[in-house]
Write a structure and sequence with these properties.
By secondary structure, the protein is mostly helical. The chain is built from 16 helices and no strands. Among the domains are: 118-172, no CATH class; 192-263, no CATH class. It starts with a helix and ends with a helix. Mean pLDDT is 84; it is low at 11-23 and 28-32.
Length: 269
Amino acid sequence: MMKKILAAVRLLILTSCFCLSTVTFAAMAQAGDQLSNADCIKCHQEAPRDIAAQGGAHKTEISCMDCHQGHPPTVRDIIPACSECHSGSAHFELDNCLNCHSNPHAPLVLKLAKNITGPCLTCHQAEGTQLKENQSFHSTMACTACHQEHGKVPDCLSCHEPHADDMVQADCKLCHQAHKPLVITYAEKTPSKSCAACHEEAYTQLTASTTKHHELSCAKCHKQTHGMIPACQDCHGAPHPAGILRKFPECGQCHSTAHNLNQWQDEKK
């Protein structure tokens, strides 16, 4: 019997507190008093915790009541539309913001669905242009096929086999860019060993050569752009008398390739 009495008393106290709290907040709203963040946190603990941890501008530039104007029961709908504050760009014109920004109290923690491209390109326009103008297999893929988490850049080697067994992720970026992977560019300091992974024969000939070309890196002659083949005259000018050049107008008639200038001598032996 005593337990039932105590339970009834507890229920009465809780009900009274809830009613008092509701009446108090309603009275404040009717009187025009402004609730503060400190008032909100008395009942709503999870949202302030998310904002404190990952709120971004929602933490630093606005308060609870800037978004949630009023309080139930006097105001039924206090969840604002994102467009009430966010406008003026293609990204803010998208529908269903909560598809990615599932928690407005942690707005930059995005949960991406599969096969998304269009919404991504409203912010990442340069990458979209590169994919469109430089067609490759990457151009056919959705952004989220690679970027499964917002801001996460996967390693090339998570999908692609390296050109050589000892290559690591840093080597990929010396020549390739993910959004235009077939436009291969590189710095002059790129080691010839990186080129050898695909151009093994040329590399073997060059390293075995006893000419000055042996001392040069691949990128020293094949400057900046993959497939660029310089003319011998770019460096050597006209190295022989005019009579020899008339008889042999092409350097390769005697010197074979730039990677093995002595081949003609070897064939005569």
